[in-house]
Specification:
alpha/beta; Rossmann fold; two-stranded antiparallel ribbon; globular; Plant_Biomass_Hydrol_Est
């Protein structure tokens, strides 16, 4: 289909047609019209609690231009269903909303509109987005070529002794899918966190909190500790992990993008061979 002025470059936000409570913006390379669109890939960048979707979208713009990829940045607003609720998307399911399915609908909407490859995308998230993307990876590894997991405050381990969200024992009952370790092993995985990311006030879950369950804090005290626990858990299950500990960096997602860009560029180069 022909593309309009607002369909190329850094786009406005578009309401998702399947559920207009959520939306997304894009970066579409200006060279797209001169490329074979079927060879273009989709990079998805998921915001954290601060909902800085455009910052992540813009951070991947140069990579999109160099590689002919499209960047999709979802916006899952604060206050869906519950006024002021901050964490709705992080554990994929919230009341009647399935944020994993909403992202899949966004992917379908964008890839259909632009005629690009929808089969195996590159997925990034930082902080609350890091929570979302590693859980999405657990459910849908077949949809991913690579996942970059940035500084999640809480983690879900591959663990058939504990229920979701701490473990995966009841994953099939919760989401209708089972852990597919073979598919997970085929995905390129990066984990990254700032070496100074040591604050715990936002990530320690207490009894009485909405997210509380037994084992909520067992992965460690800080984001550094919890990511190390997730890495060890993945490696125990045969999943190779690239780990980037970023010197001098606290909890600042847009400042952590360079190693993600390098990782994604390497993956895209390999996939184009």
């Amino acid at each position: 289909m022909p593309l309009g002025y607002y369909d190329v470059g850094a786009t406005p936000f578009f309401a998702l047609q399947a559920d207009q409570r959520v939306s997304y913006c894009l970066y579409v390379p200006k060279s797209l019209k001169d490329r074979d669109r079927s060879a273009c890939r989709l990079i998805v960048a998921v915001h954290g609690t601060g909902r800085t979707a455009t910052a992540y979208r813009d951070g991947f713009a140069d990579l999109a231009e160099r590689t002919g990829s499209i960047v999709l940045a979802p916006l899952f607003p604060i206050g869906l269903i519950e006024p002021g609720e901050l964490s709705n998307f992080k554990r994929l399911k919230f009341h009647d909303m399935r944020f994993d399915l909403l992202l899949l609908s966004m992917i379908d909407e964008v890839t259909t509109k632009y005629g690009i490859d929808s089969r195996r995308l590159l997925l990034f998230g930082f902080s609350g987005g890091g929570q979302f993307v590693h859980r999405f990876y657990t459910l849908y590894p077949q949809r991913l070529a690579a996942v970059s997991i940035g500084a999640p405050g809480n983690v879900t381990l591959i663990d058939d002794r504990r229920d979701w969200w701490v473990g995966t024992r009841n994953l099939e009952a919760e989401f209708g899918v089972a852990v597919d370790l073979e598919a997970m092993r085929r995905v390129r995985v990066q984990m990254l966190v700032g070496a100074e990311d040591t604050e715990t006030w936002e990530i320690t879950i207490k009894p009485g909190d909405a997210a509380w369950m037994e084992g909520a804090n067992d992965a460690g005290r800080t984001r550094i500790d919890r990511l190390a626990t997730l890495k060890a858990n993945y490696e125990k299950h045969g999943i190779a992990v690239r780990h980037d500990l970023l010197p001098g960096l606290g909890h600042a997602g847009p400042s952590a993008l360079q190693p993600v860009i390098e990782f994604f560029e390497q993956v895209l180069a390999e996939k184009s061979k």
